[in-house]
Amino acid sequence: MKWRPFLALALLLGFCRGAASSPTAAAAPPLLLLADVPLPGQPVRFDYQDVDSQNQHLFIAHMNDASLVVVSTLDGKLVKVLGHIPTPRGVAVAESVKRVFVTSTPGKLVIIDSDSLGELGRVATGSSPDGVAWDPADRVVGVSDQTDGALSLLADAGAGARKQVLLGRETGNVAFDATRAVFWIAVVAGAGPNLLVSVDPLTAQVRAKIPLPGCVGAHGLRLHPDGKSALVACEDNSKLARVELDAAHGLALAASGAGPDVLAIDAGLGWLYLAAESGDLRVFDLGKPGLQSVGQQHIGAAGHSVAVDPTSHRVFFPLAVGPQGKPTLRIMRPAKTAP
């Protein structure tokens, strides 16, 4: 995910807007506040997060503080801070091998033991690695080499050989599709519409290229739990795209907050969360066709990162500047009862 010029303005506005200040949020906010938990470090930008359900840990990339923050998913209590990780961005928990993969600028993948929380090593990626995903069947790590416009495939849970697949001018996030046995990655092409591209994790061959007309700056990416469609955040024109992965690749678009970035899915509830640089959250009902809104609300200044605990349905938003002017983990829950 990229730093946006209007983010500085959002930080200056600070927390004064509050989580329920917009008219829509005040009328029917989809989320209710559970707690604001202080986080360590400087009041600077956070990035991706991921949940380790086995250990009940949330891993948060404190991007501009060169650290990975580990907290409990039960109450947000601090577990550990792993420092000296330059510009950590993408985070992926691989529970099957008890690893956590963290991308780090200028070109590294940091590998962490999810049980001991000790660092196991660092391996080379391409330039400005961003999103990261895990293929448990083939033990391949997929890394978005953003400024190379490429996907790196690292064998043997990151310890093996690396293959780089050049795809376009810039790449966004990456996700593994267990049904089709491919990585999907958002691509900003050199010419023509943005793309959603699938790549074979073993052969490094491109399997499919799906155009995303009307989506500018394709970046954030999640796959629908039913495996039939993908959700893409279009950060340059503030849209969310839902595209069919098979058949005619039907496409639906909906408005998002300014600068949409990270997406998270609560499969049990059937909700998609889309966080934006503006701090405005949009929630969509994945059980319905197209992109049907559940609601929206302002989470906090620059609240562009979101993660969900699939067990408790708690939703996590790390804010660089919280109510006390310090880093804060905002923990919320759905206003409706989960099924």
Describe it for me?
The protein is mainly beta and 339 residues long. The chain has a single domain (6-334), classed as 7 Propeller (Methylamine Dehydrogenase, Chain H), CATH 2.130.10.10. It is 4% helix and 49% strand. It is built from 2 helices and 28 strands. The protein has helices spanning 6-13, 23-27, and strands spanning 31-38, 49-52, 57-62, 67-72, 78-83, 88-94, 99-104, 108-113, 119-124, 129-135, 140-145, 150-154, 162-166, 170-177, 182-188, 195-199, 206-211, 218-223, 229-234, 239-244, 251-255, 260-266, 271-276, 280-285, 292-298, 307-308, 315-319, 328-334. It has a 4-stranded antiparallel sheet, with no helix packed on it. A 4-stranded antiparallel sheet has the order 2-3-4-5, with no helix packed on it. β16 and β17 (206-211) form a beta hairpin. The longest helix is centred in the first third of the chain and has 8 residues, at 6-13. The protein is globular, with a radius of gyration of 18 Å. The chain starts with 5 loop residues before the first helix and ends in a 5-residue tail after the last strand.
